[in-house]
Design a protein that fits this description.
Structural class: mainly alpha
CATH topology: Arc Repressor Mutant, subunit A
Oligomer: single chain
Number of helices: 6
Strand order of the largest sheet: 1-2
Order of helices and strands: HHHHEEHH
Number of domains: 1
Largest sheet: 2 strands, antiparallel
CATH class: Mainly Alpha
Strand content: 5-15%
Length: 147
């Protein structure tokens, strides 16, 4: 930038959101690591708890993980017995991916530590402030999605 122009990074919304996201992700990753899970594993297991079975592309859409990252994660998760993959009845090029009982037990055990870790950063806010923050955040997300 030329001259005396000053860019205030500390008050630049994308920078602030990125910082907040990184810090929450770090807390989440630490909580998950204690459960022997990665963030990718957790997202996949969450997806599969909501749906009976999913294809790779459907899980990509739900988790927002890159397909290459997801493919590697699924292979490791299958080796650990967290998921199963079976040829799709309608399209033999695709696999149906399902959560196993071990996967269900694992994700269920992760909820309390994850919720606890992610609640801590907002613990200094009262309930009205938490609701207002969440409502405003969702409103911004919805607006960005409509652009």
């Amino acid at each position: 930038m030329a001259g005396n122009a000053h860019f205030d990074l500390e008050n630049f919304v994308p920078y602030t959101v990125s910082t907040l996201s990184r810090q929450f992700a770090s807390l989440l990753e630490d909580a998950l690591k204690k459960q022997n899970l990665t963030l990718s594993n957790w997202r996949v297991l969450l997806c599969l708890t909501h749906y009976e079975k999913r294809t790779l592309n459907q899980i990509v859409d739900y988790t927002l993980l890159p397909q290459s990252t997801l493919s590697r994660a699924l292979a490791r998760m299958e080796e650990r017995g967290l998921i199963s993959r079976n040829k799709n009845d309608h399209d033999q090029r695709n696999y149906d991916i399902e959560i196993t009982e071990l996967g269900r037990d694992t994700i269920t055990k992760s909820f309390k530590p994850v919720l606890s870790a992610c609640a801590e950063p907002l613990s200094f806010l009262d309930e009205n402030e938490k609701k207002a923050w969440m409502m405003t955040t969702k409103k911004i997300i919805a607006h960005l999605e409509s652009l």
